[in-house]
TrEMBL record:
PANTHER family: REVERSE TRANSCRIPTASE DOMAIN-CONTAINING PROTEIN (PTHR24559:SF444), TRANSPOSON TY3-I GAG-POL POLYPROTEIN (PTHR24559)
Transferase in keyword set: yes
GO biological process, one term: proteolysis
Source species of the chain: Racocetra fulgida
Protein name, as recorded: 18925_t:CDS:1
Record-linked InterPro entries: DNA/RNA_pol_sf, Rev_trsase/Diguanyl_cyclase, RNA-dir_DNA_polymerase, RT_dom
A GO MF label: RNA-directed DNA polymerase activity
């Protein structure tokens, strides 16, 4: 799971008749989430990319 920065949590907020909610971790429903997750995985696995591993997200 990828944490949402404190200053960006309000951008993920939504309200119901019960309460206001903000995401603490990145949800997979936002338009940029797949590309952000792909970029993060590319950074994390960079030493092994194309040698031992490949990162692929299938929707």
């Amino acid at each position: 799971q990828v944490e949402v920065k404190e200053e960006d949590k309000e951008k993920t907020a939504f309200i119901t008749k019960f309460s206001l909610y903000e995401f603490n971790v990145m949800p997979f429903g936002l338009c940029n989430t797949p590309s952000i997750f792909q970029r993060l995985m590319d950074v994390v696995f960079e030493p092994a990319l194309w040698k031992y591993a490949m990162v692929y997200i299938d929707d």
